[in-house]
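Work Package 4 report. The design task specified in the project plan requires that, given a folded chain encoded as structure tokens, an amino acid be chosen for each position. We show below one input record used in the internal validation round.
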């Protein structure tokens, strides 16, 4: 990842309809199930269907517990969902703003899922530090797509 392109994308062809994958992504209570990083512990607020502009919280643990507030910034039913991770209070001036985006493209044999981690929307002060997580983030994203596939094809 370099300064001119602060995005990482991973793809996986999942042998399931886009609607099933979207249903999983649009329910924040299921995010701990799909998280390949091991950092997402649980949703604050329970199960619900996300809509554009909705906010949802997550309890996280990356060696130390913390929480996030996320806002849905893009939503196209069965096609795209993206949320921006926001910090609260004084931290919002320093560390906030990375975007997680899932694009679902129907194919004859299933759905091509592209997950993108975009830190171009991150606060400039924290962006260099967040860049240090790039290789770990890529591995977590690949594991997330694998988990999504396991969940939607095991039923």
């Amino acid at each position: 990842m370099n300064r001119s392109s602060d995005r990482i994308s991973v793809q996986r062809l999942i042998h399931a309809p886009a609607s099933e994958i979207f249903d999983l992504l649009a329910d924040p209570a299921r995010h701990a199930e799909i998280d390949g990083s091991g950092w997402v512990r649980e949703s604050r607020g329970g199960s619900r269907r996300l809509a554009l502009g909705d906010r949802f919280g997550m309890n996280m643990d990356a060696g130390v517990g913390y929480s996030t507030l996320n806002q849905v910034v893009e939503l196209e039913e069965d096609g795209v969902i993206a949320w921006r991770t926001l910090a609260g209070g004084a931290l919002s001036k320093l560390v906030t703003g990375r975007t997680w985006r899932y694009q679902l493209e129907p194919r004859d044999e299933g759905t091509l899922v592209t997950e993108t981690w975009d830190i171009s929307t991150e606060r400039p002060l924290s962006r260099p530090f967040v860049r240090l997580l790039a290789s770990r983030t890529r591995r977590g994203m690949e594991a997330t797509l694998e988990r999504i596939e396991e969940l939607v094809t095991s039923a």
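The beta strands are 7-14, 40-44, 55-61, 65-76, 80-86, 99-107, 110-118. Validation will be extended to a larger panel in the next phase.
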